[in-house]
Amino acid sequence: MDRVMSGDRPTGPLHLGHYFGTLHNRVLLQRDGAELTVLIADYQVLTDRDAARDLPGHVEGLVLDYLAAGIDPSTTIVAHSALPALNQLLLPFLSLVSVSELERNPTVKDEIAQSRRAVNGVMFTYPAHQAADILFGKSTLVPVGQDQLPHLELTRTIARRFNDRYAPVFPVPEALLSAAPLLLGTDGTKMSKSRGNAIAIGASPDETARLIRGAKTDAERHITYRPDTRPEVSSLVLLAALCLDRDPESVAADVGSGGAAALKNVVVDAVNAYFAPIRARRASYAADRGFVRGILRAGAQRAGAVAEATLAEVRTAMGMAY
Ligand code: ATP
Ligand code: MG
């Protein structure tokens, strides 16, 4: 059975891109019996901003989103800053990658372009840090969105190089993409917490309707599902299809000449119906912040022991166990 790891930055509430990109897969894998760890990547908030604002609020918000989506409350959910042994893995891992490999990463390049600020060392090296996030628990499967594939490739490289150079400590993990590996936001670019283009899982039905009705579409009236040539319309069609458990072609065909306004009505109704029980669960968990904090404490304890054990193996393999 797979050991599954996946995580998110505590930069804001999780959105529909997270849900259909990775979160739902985490829930399904866990229901199938996989051992799931969810990592809250708090140091990685500092990749594209000087200070991490309202971390406790964002971290608790993520836990609420996880529980609302159906992640079991007994899951190991932990912030990587709470795991010193995980962070120490970054040092040997950095020694296994070249600067040009870090420079070539297309997702990092894109994020640097988006953030329009000087590139700090954490931004430049965070894919290697993410390798530590994945490998500290010897994960074998990582449900992610498309932007994470270059990072997963680097993680696989690091695992292989460590195993070749020292001793076979790490599995070489696989990425798991969903049917919506790159859901677009209301402006037609990747839906992201930081880009002001997201629909939060916990948004109200009215807010959801307002955001979807304002989403970018195109000038063609007839609705079709053609992700390559009509990305904005197709992303909306896909969103409705996922919520309705239908195929996107048939959703598009049903709307047809109704145009973008009719499509948006279908999407609003589908999203609000699908997320109604999830939003209700979120509200009930939100009433018990002590429960949320307890989950994080227990997660830090369990994951801390795992990270210590892996670091001990790494140090032994490297001849550093004095
Ligand atoms: P930020 O803008 O702060 O970077 P984000 O929205 O990109 O936030 P992350 O925390 O960076 O979210 O990503 C967490 C996980 O969700 C990753 O596996 C990522 O691939 C996935 N993900 C994020 N946005 C989308 C999206 N629009 N479609 C599919 N998957 C996504
Ligand atoms: Mg991101």
UniProtKB/TrEMBL annotation:
It holds the Pfam family tRNA-synt_1b. The keyword Kinase does not apply. GO terms for molecular function: ligase activity. It is an enzyme of class 6 (ligase). It comes from the Bacteria. Signal peptide: none annotated. Its EC number is 6.1.1.2. PANTHER family: TRYPTOPHAN--TRNA LIGASE, MITOCHONDRIAL. NCBIfam families: trpS. This is Tryptophan--tRNA ligase. It comes from Cryptosporangium japonicum. The lineage of its organism: Bacteria, Bacillati, Actinomycetota, Actinomycetes, Cryptosporangiales.
